[in-house]
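Cross-posted from the bioinformatics board.
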Amino acid sequence: MTLVIKGGRVIDRDGERVVDVVIDNGVIAEVGTNLSGDRMLDAIGCIVSPGFVDLHTHLREPGREEAETVETGSRAAALGGYTAVVAMPNTEPTQDSIAVVNLVRSLGERAGLVEVMPAGAITIERAGKQLAPFAELASAGVTLFTDDGNGVQDPLLMRRAMEYSLGLGITLAQHCEVSRLTDGAVMNEGSCCSHLGLPGWPSIAEELMVFRDIELARLTGAGIHLLHLSTSRSVELVRAAKAEGLTVTAEATPHHFTLTDETLRSFDSVFKVNPPLRTMADIEAIKVGLRDGTIDAIATDHAPHPQESKEQPLDQAPPGMLGLETALSLALGELDLDLLQTIALLSWKPAAIARLGARHGGPIAVGRPANVTVFDPDLSWTVKPSLLASKSRNTPYAGRTMRGKVRHTIFNGDAVVVDGTAQR
Amino acid sequence: MKHLRSIEELDAAGILSLLELTDHMVEINARPIPKVPALRGKNVVNIFFEDSTRTRLSFETAAKRLSADVMTFSVGTSSVNKGESLRDTIETVQAMGVDAFVIRHKSSGVPWQISNWTDASVINAGDGWHQHPTQALLDCYTIRQALGRKGGFEGLRIAIVGDIKHSRVARSDVQAFAALGAHVTLVAPPTLLPPSIAGWPVETSQDLDSLVGKVDVLYLLRMQRERMSEALIPSLREYTDRFGLTADRARRLGDSTLVMHPGPMNRGVEIAVDPSELPGNVIIQQVANGVAVRMAVLFQLLGQGDSLA
Amino acid sequence: MSQTNAASAPPDGGVFHVRSTVLSADDIRRAITRIAHEIIEHNRGLDGVVIVGLQRGGTWIANRLGEAIATIEPLANVPVGSLDASFHRDDFGLRPVVPGSVSDIPAHLDGATVVLVDDVLFTGRTVRAALEALNDYGRPRSVQLAVIVDRGHRELPIRPDYVGKNLPTRRDEDVRVSPEGVVIGDHS
């Protein structure tokens, strides 16, 4: 059976044109005008782009199935226009062995909504003591390694990890946080936390590790991907490192370019996140970084938590917020970038960092795997937590009206989202 | 006014009118039978997630003197059933019929969270490092009483000394004192100040000696021993030397300088003299006024009909 | 407080329109003098008598009554106090409560003869609250009630011992008492 996407404006790394796209047997079979197929997906007024890739998703399974499962998270991802997500390794048990990695991957295949790429941990149980078996995991298809949730504190261990990664064809990604500086921290350190009497989470805790890892990249020659940058100084450090030609990449989350620490004046723990929401000046710096290429990707850090765990005092509530179903709208509405640049940040640039470029983010061209997103850039919608596909409800954008919404998502040639509705 | 979660919920006029109401409560407390039926049938629930015997007793006494029904339970946060959220706890108690929750918690903001989950009034009896509004009111009442300042604190010089960073008393007092027109100086090493005091209506100083004898009120905060292990101060001895009320500084205090402390005191640390020998010592009045101020707050929140104006 | 006496801020709000003057300033002076005589006569002297004005409307009358008694019996030295019964009222939640001045009871009331003084006796609810409040200060031997105007419409079994004037009124009318006289009017 062939599928035709009709009347959309195709935007990929090769540029922009209004064409129909025919998909057959999982690949793009034909691109041109006046094409037809067995099944038609209307794309008039919509953008047709390579599927999005999220470098930073917490699917919570195994271990925290009350918050999210691979299936519910995959559905949220597909509805957000993603065709691949990198599943963070802070599961229980940790994704530090082939058994766990294969379990997550097979759960993803069973759900069949997006490609679930499990990330490996850098250290066993993300405990920061002993390296995880990079090569063994790489042989099982793992391409990105991180202890996300924890930064690798020990500089010697991080140096060894980077040296050992050379030649394995993998990406190391750091959660930049010197934990000694953030013990008990709840929110950004500044005037707001001072007023609210909440323990501060200083920017310097992130920036010290950004600086350290840039210098380790220089020393070892290995690349490093820096997760969820949140401060203006971090952006500056990365910009300088790139200017020197170091292999440093970075991502930023939608919440770090849309929300400030002032939101916590409500004491609503939905706004507690790691790294914390910062200031307007940081938001501006991140936006500039996204615009000038300092920051390579928009990543969601989709972090579901069940309602009851968020209905705790701020210092006990876990950090994290949903992101998969709102990222595109926020990128379109808040960044003031042209569509090509926005899609690059959501699709082929993160695909390259996660080494998924062969299957995701490629141009809409004959013979390519059919991982395609169709979105209406002008459709206005209001975020209703109860209507989200995620098993959890912790979106900080409840009630907010946004512009731009995914209409169809095609994963491996299969229309998994049609007219904004998940098909499985 | 529905809740008292922060002293910021009151403007200067609001603070002064609560202090006037407190005058009535002081008179009631002086009666041979210090109990009135004003809050008969109202149910006040004190939930102390962090223990504080004196504040708990003060609120309990206040509610009983107004004839409210009072339930008190102290829950160590560690002992709360891990499976039950804070919201579950509140909704369970709420189901028994509650007009006001009096909440003490070691985490900032809990009274705000709770006020989103209940129709009852919420009174903050201390949350984290954030707010302790009834302490600020009783401190204002004590100063007003001792210095005869019924109309406000215009021109009054107040020094708050010690661990401002971790002090809900300091945050509430700064706002209340400044609202009433006082000039407030925070005296502390930079490690014991909040990360930013931009916008606070205060001056700061590290030189207590230059202020002793010049201020009308010397407000000493409790210095906790664990601050040493957090590398915030080198030693308690050095703290006392720089920021404590030593015998030498006590001699240089004017007779009319009020000495205040929220209790419990660390004798020999922030106060190295016998406070009872200081002419301006009003520490025990602070405790006594606590009951009357809390009666006024409870009456203000629960004893009033809807405004007809 | 009866609903007639908060002259500065009528609890029911609105504007007060005077319809007629019922007692003049002289009438009030004479009524207070007469009541002073009656109190002395009724109690066969002034032993143990304490005058307590009900806030807010009764306090000035209690003070005038104390002066009148002192003129008649210069050696008697009758204590005069004031009582705010706000915290004993039975209508909390029905309307805002604005306490008057702080109560001032100058004598121990155990065994005393308390003469409660108010401006207008209406439903009797203020007096009920005052009777209860008095108990906080001790157990008087007896409590008597003096009012300038009894306007009827009692809702409780309370009657005055000393009355300036019995004044039949409609329920929705308002009666105001001041040193200048007694007026009847209504609200709009």
